[in-house]
Amino acid sequence: MLLRPANGASDYLLLLPADKLSDLEAQAHFTAQLLEAIVQKAQGISLILRFRTETARYRPDGSYKPDSNRERK
């Protein structure tokens, strides 16, 4: 999933799921190679200025889910 912030910034967030923590290194390596290939094809145009990876774990107990049983006012 590719996300762009609502504030109109030129940053993008690419979300990649992983079943195991051991999958993360391969995904980061593949993404870095893909971005490098894009930069090379751009022929001098600065498309990508920075790239970094972060790891996050989805926790249902820390996510907002509105109560669908409650009446809306």
Structural description of this entry:
- The chain is mainly alpha-helical.
- The longest helix has 19 residues.
- 26% of the residues lie in helices and 5% in strands.
- The chain is flat, with a radius of gyration of 18 Å.
- It starts with a strand and ends in a 32-residue tail after the last helix.
What count of helical segments does DSSP give?
1
Mean pLDDT equals 77
Taking pLDDT < 50 over at least 5 consecutive residues as the criterion, the unreliable ranges are none
Amount of helix:
25-40%
Alpha carbon gap, first and last residue:
33 Å
The rounded Rg comes to: 18 Å
Q: Indicate the proportion of strand residues.
A: 5-15%
Describe the structure concisely.
By secondary structure, the chain is mainly alpha-helical. Helix content is 26%, strand content 5%.
